[in-house]
Amino acid sequence: MSEPQRPIRLIVGLGNPGPEYADTRHNAGFMWIDSLAHDLGVSLKVESKFFGLAARAQLDGHEFWLLEPQTYMNVSGKSVAALARFYKILPDEVLVVHDELDLLPGEAKLKQGGGHAGHNGLKDIQAMLGTPNYWRLRLGVGHPRTLGLNQPVADFVLHRPRQDEEKLLFDSIDRSLAALKWLLRGDFPRATMAVNTKPKPPKAAAKAPE
C-alpha cells in the first residue's frame, strides 16, 4: 500500500496584475483564487516580501496559503519561491492553478510534475523551485485554432473569453474548487477524480404526449 502524500499547503493562481489584464484567459488562475477567497471569506493583501497578494486560510482544520504573484506571468517563480521558502513549504506541497490551451473551456485536469508546454509562468516556477514536481490544476481556455479563431496565441490569452466560454470556465472553477478538501488532506486520487470527471449533461425531459 502506497504511503499518503503530503497535503497542499500553498495554492498559487497565475495571472498578470493590472486592470487591463483582469478577466482575460491568462488570468484564469487569479479567477480561481478569487473564487476560493470569496467562498472562505478571506481577503488577499499585499505582501511585498512575497512579491504578491497573499492570505492565510483554513478549511476543516487545515491551514494553507493563497497567493497571486504580482510580478507578471513570466517571473511568477520569484513570488512562489519566496513564500514557499519562508514557510518551508516543499514543491510537492504547492498547487499552481493556471490557464491551459490544450484543454477546452469547461475542462480541468489535476496533475503532478511534467513539462511546462511553453507556459512562461510554469517555466519560471520550475526554474525557481528547482524541480517540476509541484502540482498543477489546468483550467481549459481552448486554443484559437480549436475554437475557430484566426488569432495569435499571445493575443488570444490576453483577451477575455467569449461569453459562452467564460461560463464554461467558471463551471470548471466551481467543479475543481469542490476538490479542495481532498487536496488539503493529501488524498490526490480523490481530488483528481473530482477535478477530471466532467459532470454528465442533464437528460432531456421526456416529451409529454399530445
Automatic annotation (TrEMBL):
Keywords: Cytoplasm, Hydrolase, RNA-binding, tRNA-binding. GO terms for molecular function: peptidyl-tRNA hydrolase activity. Its EC number is 3.1.1.29. It catalyses: an N-acyl-L-alpha-aminoacyl-tRNA + H2O = an N-acyl-L-amino acid + a tRNA + H(+). The record marks 99 as: Stabilizes the basic form of H active site to accept a proton. It is an enzyme of class 3 (hydrolase). TRNA binds at residues 21, 72, 74, 120. It is found in: Cytoplasm. Hydrolyzes ribosome-free peptidyl-tRNAs (with 1 or more amino acids incorporated), which drop off the ribosome during protein synthesis, or as a result of ribosome stalling. Catalyzes the release of premature peptidyl moieties from peptidyl-tRNA molecules trapped in stalled 50S ribosomal subunits, and thus maintains levels of free tRNAs and 50S ribosomes. This is Peptidyl-tRNA hydrolase. The gene is pth.
